[in-house]
Amino acid sequence: MQTKFDNRYTHSPEDIRHYSTEQLRKEFLVEEVFKSGEIKLTYTHNDRMIFGGVTPTTEPLEIVFDKALGVEYFLERRELGVINIGGEGIIEIDSQADTMKKQDGYYIGKETRHVVFSSKNPKNPAKFYISSVPAHHKYPNVKISIDQIKPMETGDPLTLNERKIYQYIHPNVCESCQLQMGYTILEPGSSWNTMPCHTHERRMETYVYFDMAEDTRIFHMMGKPDETKHLVLGNEQAIISPSWSIHSGVGTSNYSFIWSMCGENITYTDMDMVDMKDLK
């Protein structure tokens, strides 16, 4: 059975100038990423990234696309990143199975025909967050555990942004065509991420926020630096960040998020920093 996805089209910053909160949420927010027993995906025309959640329970799940992407199978011309944020699961890649505990990740190269997701305990299902982008070359599949990554420790308690950044799909860890993917964990007492903020005109990004209490919220900042807007997100909700937009957030408590990027290059530090005095 063909997998379905939600289509999101691109926007000029001029387009969103007069958007209401409801319009912004409709265009940039994904309110439900994980649904038990289902695959929930969004196709953003910003660099043609497909992202979302795969939450198997009693039956395995496989992403199946052909006509929707003009190919014979999903990864014929794409690469895929996976990070599990739920219970223990199994990922089967062209009949080779690997166990995936929470915070395990995987890079899967183009021309991989079958990727099947399952959970060891349907009552505590795995939650596989995936990002897929077009690829021009086949690189080796690599399993990546958070235990194998030396995190970047950055921020300061005085500015409420002390955090650890784990780079999963990154040139320091594995090769990819254009996909980058990582996991950021804020320390208790910290609530800001990526402030001072930046843009990167050469890449777009998606975020999924999680490990949040039910009554915790994230205020995600977006828009041009001199004309900012915000959206309020709950646990396990995602946001699309175009290349021209800032992408900072502040929460009512600490939280975690997965970031996925793609575009012209894979240089993590390719950022255009924004001076605080230029924010409006």
TrEMBL record:
Instruction: Quote the cofactor binding remark.
Output: Binds 1 zinc ion per subunit.
Pfam families referenced in this protein's UniProt entry, alphabetically: KduI
UniProt cross-references to Gene3D superfamilies, sorted A to Z: Jelly Rolls (2.60.120.10), pectin degrading enzyme 5-keto 4- deoxyuronate isomerase, domain 1 (2.60.120.520)
Task: Please name the GO terms of the biological process aspect recorded for this protein, alphabetically.
Answer: D-galacturonate catabolic process; D-glucuronate catabolic process; pectin catabolic process
**Record GO terms (molecular function):** 4-deoxy-L-threo-5-hexosulose-uronate ketol-isomerase activity; zinc ion binding
Q: What is its EC number?
A: 5.3.1.17
**Where is Zn(2+) bound in this sequence?**
198, 200, 205, 247
What chemistry does it catalyse, as a reaction equation? Answer: 5-dehydro-4-deoxy-D-glucuronate = 3-deoxy-D-glycero-2,5-hexodiulosonate
Q: Which cofactor does it need?
A: Zn(2+)
Record keywords: Isomerase, Metal-binding, Zinc
Write down the InterPro entries for this protein, in alphabetical order: KduI (IPR007045), KduI/IolB_isomerase (IPR021120), KduI_N (IPR027449), RmlC-like_jellyroll (IPR014710), RmlC_Cupin_sf (IPR011051)
Q: Does the keyword Acetylation apply?
A: no
The biological pathway it contributes to is: Glycan metabolism; pectin degradation; 2-dehydro-3-deoxy-D-gluconate from pectin: step 4/5
Q: Is Endoplasmic reticulum set as a keyword in this record? A: no
Question: Which family does this protein fall into?
Answer: Belongs to the KduI family.
Q: What does this protein do?
A: Catalyzes the isomerization of 5-dehydro-4-deoxy-D-glucuronate to 3-deoxy-D-glycero-2,5-hexodiulosonate.
Q: In its UniProt entry, what is this protein called?
A: 4-deoxy-L-threo-5-hexosulose-uronate ketol-isomerase
Which species?
A: Streptococcus merionis
